[in-house]
């Protein structure tokens, strides 16, 4: 069942909101008249986001500078909302860290940071905000996964594994909360043009990579439309949908070989 943005009276809280997909999602919700709580580590970028959104849209853009690698940060975000009597109706768990390269080449500290940032803030914030979200007749949680969550990706071992956790977790709690007012979605985009490094990776990934990749603002539009239209799995773009079907049809060994070969090419572009 679809929902109009006019039915959203609370705030939309977005993590990793200062850059990339998170920033694009912030603008997309603001353009639909929804006030934003933008959470990120980059204070200067958050100030710029706030000024731009509030000068161009008739909404409030509140900002919180937090390093969500800090295990205490999600609780601090929640406490700040409660203390300021701010009701969150839409929770977008977007913050994350990615890498392309061999597992052997990365440091253990980096590996732990990637898993912590991609997984733990999502768990903590979802758990903390559920009682608030249940106050509304209808509320929403969006967890940001990846098309790489659907099959193991060589040279993106921890990244694809962490995104697989997000995908599985989201689908599971979506079923658990089906009878409640909280609608849980997970988005699995393919390539997204977010910065120069992403452009380089996509440019060396071949025709399929270019065909399935989208600009961040287009991905954001797919995501927000998907949330409001009640979709529990959001795959932005026709190309990504085709690739998802192909990944599911191919034998896993063949899929790993094709993707691994492609990721090897990508390493020099990171």
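^ Assign residues to that structure.
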């Amino acid at each position: 069942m679809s929902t109009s943005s006019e039915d959203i009276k609370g705030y939309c809280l977005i993590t990793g909101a200062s850059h990339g997909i998170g920033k694009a999602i912030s603008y997309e919700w603001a353009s639909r008249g929804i006030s934003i709580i933008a959470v990120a580590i980059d204070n200067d970028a958050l100030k710029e986001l706030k000024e731009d959104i509030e000068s161009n849209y008739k909404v409030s853009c509140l900002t919180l500078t937090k390093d969500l690698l800090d295990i205490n940060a999600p609780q601090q975000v929640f406490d700040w909302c409660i203390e300021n009597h701010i009701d969150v109706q839409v929770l977008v768990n977007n913050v994350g860290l990615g890498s392309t390269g061999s597992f052997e080449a990365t440091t253990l500290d980096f590996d732990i940071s990637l898993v912590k940032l991609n997984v733990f803030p999502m768990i903590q914030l979802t758990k903390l905000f559920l009682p608030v979200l249940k106050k509304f007749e209808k509320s929403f949680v969006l967890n940001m996964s990846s098309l790489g969550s659907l099959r193991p990706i060589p040279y993106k071992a921890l990244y694809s594994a962490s995104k697989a956790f997000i995908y599985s977790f989201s689908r599971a709690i979506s079923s658990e909360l089906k009878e409640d007012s909280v609608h849980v979605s997970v988005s699995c985009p393919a390539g997204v043009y977010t910065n120069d490094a992403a452009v380089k990776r996509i440019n060396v990934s071949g025709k399929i990579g270019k065909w399935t990749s989208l600009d961040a603002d287009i991905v954001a539009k797919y995501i927000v439309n998907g949330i409001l239209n009640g979709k529990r799995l959001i795959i932005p773009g026709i190309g990504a949908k085709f690739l998802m079907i192909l990944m599911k049809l191919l034998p896993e060994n063949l899929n790993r070989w094709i993707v691994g070969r492609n990721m090897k090419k990508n390493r020099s572009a990171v």
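The domain at 5-195+214-237 is CATH 3.40.50.720 (Rossmann fold).
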